[in-house]
Amino acid sequence: MSEALLSVTGLHHWFGGLHVINDVDFSCRAGVVQAIIGPNGAGKTTLFNLVAGSLSPTSGSIAFEGRPIEGLPAHRIAGLGVARTFQATRLFSGMTVLENVMVGRHRKSRGSFLTDLAGRLFNGRRDDRMRRACMEILDSLGIVGLADTQAKDLPFGRQRMVELARALAAEPKLLL
To answer: Of 37, 49, 78, 91, which alpha carbon lies 20 to 30 A from 28's?
Structure first.
């Protein structure tokens, strides 16, 4: 059995006097799909916010690849390879579908100081590789035909697919 990719132990979170997360324990292994289910108000979103770093736990521990991450800011946790989508879509409405997905790819596309200094020759090639990778993700989700469509013009279900594509573009180790 492989080591847990994510391990949550004794997690608690309070909002004022309301105990939303009460002694939660679970783990996830790489390559396994798991679900957190429960009725509205059960704390599922709060749990995801704790793991992703949008909130800090009142107590308990969260480890990613064996490293404690509770209390780290969201951008640091994302940098470790944790991506997420949201209940309400959070797309950039003034951008196209492809541009939204490319935003998710940013973490994987950074060049070195020297390539940035070298200018358009190297950056153009890097941008082309990033664009191709994002188009492949759109194709795998069956929405490649929407690449040039403004995100704001899509129905809600398609917006959710774009948000999933953006999360996958980061090549996460863990997708919430």
So the answer is: 91
